[in-house]
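wait is this the right file?? whatever heres the structure
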């Protein structure tokens, strides 16, 4: 548990992503001043209420938008995703920004990918002001297993059992996902992140990822 006070911004596509992929890290750092934004489900009366209840458990504040999140996963315009992020995030400097991987955390959800790409681009263009960025590092071996933390990522941490249980309760009780369902079974016991302290390095990494996907 860290006692270092940091101003932290967490940018996710959906309510519950903050808990699944970084909840243990947030719970382990109660001195963080954490603001969490979700780009989707803002008008979903059930999910939005649960999101704000989760924020209380995480000792965080936050806001939501209502970008299209239909099952068809119709691609969103990059400019619209970026505009939505900027409209939700409080202005100013952050010690740390945490967000999705541009390739997602599992195979596949387009909104995760679009969010991760937009966050890196905004940082590189100076629209997000932060000392460093952590990108979720998980993989599911093309749906052959539940998402797992990447062991050789920049940051890899096995959660203490009490922290994991708090995280699991947010998923199953606060968000109401059933035990045995995807979200509950996915809830990782370890969390990992790709860490960047320079926007140029993150931008180059993104460029290489995009090129690799198009080969």
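ok assuming it is, sequence goes like this
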């Amino acid at each position: 548990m860290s006692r270092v006070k940091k101003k932290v911004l967490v940018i996710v596509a959906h309510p519950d992503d903050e808990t699944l992929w970084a909840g243990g890290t947030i719970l382990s750092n109660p001195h963080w001043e954490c603001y969490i934004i979700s780009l989707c489900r803002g008008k979903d009366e059930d999910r939005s209420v649960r999101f704000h209840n989760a924020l209380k458990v995480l000792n965080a504040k936050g806001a939501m938008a209502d970008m299209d999140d239909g099952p068809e996963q119709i691609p969103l315009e990059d400019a619209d995703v970026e505009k939505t992020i900027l409209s939700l995030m409080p202005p100013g400097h952050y010690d740390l920004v945490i967000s999705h991987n541009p390739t997602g955390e599992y195979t596949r959800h387009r909104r995760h990918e679009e969010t991760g790409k937009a966050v890196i681009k905004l940082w590189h263009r100076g629209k997000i002001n932060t000392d460093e960025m952590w990108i979720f590092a998980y993989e599911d071996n093309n749906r052959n297993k539940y998402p797992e933390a990447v062991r050789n990522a920049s940051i890899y941490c096995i959660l203490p059992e009490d922290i994991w249980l708090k995280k699991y309760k947010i998923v199953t009780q606060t968000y109401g996902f059933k035990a045995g369902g995807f979200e509950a079974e996915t809830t990782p016991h370890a969390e990992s992140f790709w860490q960047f302290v320079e926007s140029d390095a993150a931008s180059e990494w993104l460029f290489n990822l995009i090129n690799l996907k198009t080969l």
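Residues 7-214 form a domain with the Rossmann fold fold (CATH 3.40.50.10320). so i think its the right one actually
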